[in-house]
Write a structure and sequence with these properties.
Layout lengths: L3 H27 L2 H20 L7 H18 L6 H6 L9 H20 L2 H12 L4 H8 L3 H18 L3
Helix pairs in contact: 1-2, 1-3, 2-3, 3-7, 6-8, 7-8
Length: 168
Amino acid sequence: MKNIDDKKAEFLKAYDHLSEPLFRRFWYKLSDKERAQDLLQETFTKAWQYIVEGKKVRNLKSFLYAIANHMIIDEYRKSRSVSLDELTESGFDKALEGGHQSILDDVELNKIVITIEKLPQKYKEIIKMRYIDGLELVEISEIIGESENVVSVRINRGTKKLQKMLHL
């Protein structure tokens, strides 16, 4: 059984390795850097409180992503429409400052993101977890509660559907 110092060291290591990918996930889903940072902090705070209470966490990475996913769902539930001023304040207009190639890259990325959103739900989230979040099959399996085989098949089929939709 791990003592609190071991748990703290493991937690800090997870923070070092996962804070950036989790932040990107929040930012990707919410398009708001400040809110993404707030939710990132809340995610790690909730996880640490759970651990300190002595509750068992089998895979800290999967656990953190599960908390993050629940927080994103909660945000969507209480979301409201965003004004143009809010988009400008959040850096939306910064994409135009990168020059011609940056705009082309952004357009291509937007095309892929929009196309991913058109995938059936059973493929959409798994594709995002695998290719945007960089999660392994076993981690995705733990988060969604399906076998690794089911996850692998869905990633394969979802990727093929995405390629077909993008005409690749």
